[in-house]
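Whiteboard transcription, Tuesday session. T.W. wrote the structure tokens on the left side:
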């Protein structure tokens, strides 16, 4: 629950900062009192969002450390430096902190070049989200990470820009002229349309990768949350269409008619825009801002669903399709990992032996250690398992259904592995120690197929 709230705070603050920076480039280049006041408010908003993002990233680092160590809050805070320097996740979050600091310092500057560099820093921050989410399950440099990053950038530009526009245009102070509001709203509307196209394309790919099958939209928690998110996006699209095709045309400058229709035109213009040279009446402005504000609120709900999806197990891990024929997982090549595996940090074999005993793994698995009693339940023999890549050992412990080994009593009536779920019972350190213990049943226990002379 806390991790999800922290994740949502990171998403909203990043999107608001990124969308605000993009919105700043949409503003017309002309100098006008209303635009100058809006630019000042926008700079303050971007700075505030980056401050929140800095705090939220620090909080995420503590929350992730506590989840990995299963320790108290005080102990987790003390372990943060070790996580920052010794883990892949910590290094990514450290890089994010550095990028946030750079963007925050640049947000105080008014120059266009400084804002462009700050925008590049926020794009790097968005990449860090993809590198710490489900898209990075196959590695850092993958198509999945690239598509997820493009999705995050497009969604942040769209929804984050809406939030910034609602705050800038909805506040009191200098009244926006008709021309200024029309220029900003029209420019952002075109940008939102391009962002929507990118969101649809990249979002479809992400859904296909994380679900694995269309049927899992309604049969998994991940799919059901995704359905709610899609409905909210549909509402957002409808509100944007109303703004673009019904409200914005009324703001666009038009040429006054001549002849008999001139008086009718002036009367209708006075009723809609009020008196003055192109200034919006309070009613017209409040109506437009109200629609933008509702869009921004719906965008916040979309980010809430996105944060929840980051904490829910993807649909591809929940249900598993099997062929009707039995199969045995092939033995891995010990010379290297198969695609998608990771190398865990080295652990302590003696501590791993204690973990092995505590989890009662010997009740199902025979091992070349005479101090353990023979197994009483069905399970593969672990002799020689140390020849496998340690990343595969991690996968076999944390996700036994990723590669199912058929055998007498190894699977249930659905064809899934009977091995218990240890994801909530092992810390990262205990997992590394257990893997180190299993690696001790290495190549010495595996039968050799070549003569000793050639091995020497």
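and on the right, the sequence the group agreed on:
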């Amino acid at each position: 629950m806390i991790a999800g709230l922290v994740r949502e705070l990171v998403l909203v603050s990043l999107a608001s900062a990124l969308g605000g920076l993009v919105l700043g480039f949409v503003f017309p280049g002309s100098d006008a009192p209303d635009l100058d006041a809006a630019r000042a408010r926008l700079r303050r908003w971007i700075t505030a969002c980056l401050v929140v993002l800095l705090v939220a990233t620090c909080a995420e680092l503590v929350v992730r450390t506590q989840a990995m160590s299963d320790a108290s809050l005080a102990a987790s805070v003390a372990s943060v430096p070790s996580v920052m320097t010794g883990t892949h996740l910590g290094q990514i979050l450290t890089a994010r902190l550095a990028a946030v600091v750079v963007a925050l310092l640049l947000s105080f500057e008014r120059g266009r070049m400084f804002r462009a560099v700050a925008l590049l820093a926020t794009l790097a921050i968005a990449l860090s989200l993809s590198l710490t989410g489900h898209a990075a399950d196959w590695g850092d440099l993958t198509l999945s990470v690239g598509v997820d990053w493009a999705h995050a950038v497009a969604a942040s530009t769209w929804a984050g820009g809406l939030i910034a526009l609602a705050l800038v245009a909805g506040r009191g102070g200098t009244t926006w002229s008709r021309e200024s509001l029309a220029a900003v709203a029209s420019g952002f509307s075109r940008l939102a349309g391009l962002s929507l196209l990118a969101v649809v394309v990249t979002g479809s790919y992400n859904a296909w990768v994380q679900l694995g099958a269309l049927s899992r939209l309604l049969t998994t928690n991940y799919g059901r949350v995704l359905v709610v998110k899609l409905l909210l996006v549909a509402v957002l699209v409808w509100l944007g269409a109303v703004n673009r095709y019904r409200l914005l045309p009324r703001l666009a400058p038009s040429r006054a008619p001549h002849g008999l229709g001139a008086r009718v035109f002036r009367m209708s213009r006075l009723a809609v825009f009020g008196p003055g040279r192109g200034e919006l009446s309070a009613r017209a402005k409040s109506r437009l801002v109200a629609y933008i504000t509702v869009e921004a609120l719906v965008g916040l709900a979309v980010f809430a669903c996105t944060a929840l999806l980051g904490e829910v197990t993807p649909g591809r891990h929940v249900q598993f399709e099997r062929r009707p024929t039995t199969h045995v997982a092939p033995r891995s090549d010990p010379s290297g990992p198969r695609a998608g595996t990771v190398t865990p940090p080295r652990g302590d074999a003696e501590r791993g032996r204690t973990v092995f005993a505590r989890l009662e793994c010997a009740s199902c698995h025979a091992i070349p250690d005479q101090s353990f009693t023979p197994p009483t339940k069905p399970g593969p023999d672990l002799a020689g398992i140390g020849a496998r890549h340690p990343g595969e050992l991690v996968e076999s412990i944390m996700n036994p259904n990723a590669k199912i080994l058929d055998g007498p009593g190894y699977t249930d009536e659905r064809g899934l592995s009977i091995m218990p779920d240890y994801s909530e019972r092992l810390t990262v350190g205990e997992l590394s120690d257990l893997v180190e213990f299993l690696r001790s049943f290495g190549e010495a226990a595996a039968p050799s197929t070549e003569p000793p002379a050639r091995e020497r």
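Someone added at the bottom: Confidence is low (pLDDT under 50) at residues 253-281, 320-340, 444-456.
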